[in-house]
Give the backbone structure.
Amino acid sequence: MNKRERKKFEKLLREMRDQKLKYIAMLRELAISRTQREASGDVSAFTSHPADISTESDEREKIASLITRETAAVKELDAALERIEDASYGKCEACDDDIPVARLQALPFATLCVKCQAEAEKG
Ligand SMILES: [Zn+2]
């Protein structure tokens, strides 16, 4: 991968990272506002409906798992940006082949080429 392509991916990765960080901040606020509403007792109006209670806690769980997932994605993006820094970005970690640009466009934090990814998934 040449320098120009690397720059392009760096920009893409940084944009994705910014978006994810904004999304995480929004999810956190959502989680906090829900907790506050429950603490202030606003939710008591619903307590006569058990279905609503389970929906509330389901949703809280969903938000928590989204935060976990997005945080993990940010870490992957950070790692990809580090690989851009040390110029190892775009190389397969297993066989050292170049990862096709089309694959990186679809999956900018891919660390394996298609072949090695398939091997890894087979176990
Ligand atoms: Zn490979």
